[in-house]
Amino acid sequence: MNLQPGNIIISTDLLNDTKFEKVAIVITEHNEKGTIGYVFNQLFPRKFNELEEFKHSIPVPLYAGGPVQTDMLYFMHCRPDLIADGQQVANNVHMGGDFKKAVQLLNSRELPVADVRLYIGYCGWDVNEFEAEIAEGSWQLTNASVDLVFSTSTESAWKELYVTQQV
Predict the structure, then answer these.
(1) Are 18 and 34 in contact (CB under 8 A)?
(2) How far is Cα 115 from Cα 48, in angstroms, rounded to an integer?
(3) At 10, is the secondary structure helix, strand, or coil?
(4) Residue 99 CB burial class (10 angstroms; 0-12, 13-18, ≥19)
(5) 3 state DSSP class of 107
(6) Across all residues in the chain, what is the average pLDDT?
(7) Radius of gyration of the chain (CA)
(8) DSSP 3-state assignment of 1?
(9) Which among 166, 163, 53, 75 is positioned nearest to 119, based on CA atoms?
(10) Exposed, middle or buried, 66 (CB in 10 Å: 0-12/13-18/19+)?
(11) In angstroms, rounded to a whole number, what is the distance separating the alpha carbons of residues 162 and 68?
(12) DSSP 3-state helix, strand, coil percentages of the chain (rounded to 5)?
């Protein structure tokens, strides 16, 4: 298995009736310390401007990135030309960077909302834990491009990926 940042995984039927039922995750780190990813097909019940610190910002969707550190906000974008210091995940997709600048650009509408994903929490696995979950059949590695994170609707992402992988 050649798991790497930028891969997209989907939950299988083994995870039905859990918090990971019908979940699509983009992997952002996979190394000797473990694996980190973000759920990109589940919206968080509040918007960015409903967080006290950002109440003067425009309403940007928040995604329920995962069950780890749900008191933290993370962001992914496909605009390294506008947001400096992000860490490349794959292709033109980056994690983090100058968040203050990203918020300014969002509020001035210079950065389209469609080019950013804001996550509450993340998914994390210890070294070899994720590979074991794939081996047991809980997760399926897809051949989808990381660009899908920004180009598909929240409601249809898992179903589109699931159907594509069954062919």
Answers:
(1) no
(2) 15
(3) strand
(4) middle
(5) helix
(6) 92
(7) 16
(8) coil
(9) 75
(10) buried
(11) 25
(12) 25, 35, 40
Q: Which amino acid is at 160?
A: E
Task: Report the alpha-carbon distance of residue 28 to residue 50 in Å, rounded.
Answer: 27
Instruction: Measure the CA–CA gap between 66 and 38, rounded to whole angstroms.
Output: 6
Which pTM does this prediction carry? 0.92
Q: How far apart are CA 113 and CA 116, in angstroms?
A: 6
Cα dihedral across residues 65, 34, 99, 69: positive or negative: positive
Residue 167 reports pLDDT greater than 50: no
Q: How far apart are CA 107 and CA 156, in angstroms?
A: 28
**How many residues are present in the chain?**
167
43 pLDDT above the threshold of 80: yes
